[in-house]
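Hi, here's the filled form for the chain we discussed.

Project: internal
Contact: R.S.
Residues: 305
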Amino acid sequence: MDSVHRLATYILKNPPKDDSEFSKSKGKQKGKNDAEQKKSKSGHTKDPKAKRDEEEKLLEALTLESPEILESIKRVREFKDGQKRSANELVDQISNICISQGLKDDLKYYVAIHGLYNSKFLYQWNQDAASKEAIKTMVKNERKGKYWILLALEHFILRSHSKELTEHINTILKCFYDSEILEEDMFLKWYGKETASKTLSSGKSYDPELNAEFKEKAAHFINWLKEAEEDEEEEEEDNVEEEEKEDESTKKQKELIEEQQRLQEQELQENKEKILENKKESEGPKPLNILDIKTELDATSLDDL
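And the returned structure, exactly as it came back:
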């Protein structure tokens, strides 16, 4: 009873606040909580432009030695070496690995060429049809794939395997040409540019000196292409001239044949007429028939005699 009495005494001395004040205080607290929640949510919602800027900064910090790229190359090698793969399987896996590492499409070619090949490139190119077809499919499916694979080759040959592959640059480029992955026009267009497009990690990995060195060492192959193109043009011109000569010769020959046919027909007609004349001469005059003579006499009157 004492505790109950003390509780009642406390309530009487400290009555609760009225409902209006309580509601007002509660409303302020609720508004404060809502504002904090909105602020918290807005802190997690990034502006699209800010998000792109952040991605660009990450890409700028990305180099060809970054863990993301090295890990991607490693995973491609493990996938390829695990068992026999088809070209489509390789293409899909390379794409998925690069996406999982947040790499752009241009770096996919760097990962592909390093993951599928090593310092024994020429041997592998001739023996591994699936990897070759995978590269061909990737280049074919993307508009800038031809540029990206060339930039990837620059690093692959002159940086990753310089000792083993530098002397084989022209042969390697011819492999891509013979396999119809890169055509003549593409090589000449690429070689004629003073600088290549700044791709591969937003230009971070683009090295003007490397590009110039690669083109210098590829000069033999490019000159071979140019000479082949000139020879082809000369051959086409020669073919046109030959066709014109053949047309003129054919025309004259046709006229000659027609003239010969006309003369032969004329000669045949003349021979036919001669044969008929000779036949008439050989037969002599036609013998008289007694009936014909009688008929003539009957028709002649005595006065005529």
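Let me know if anything looks off before we file it.
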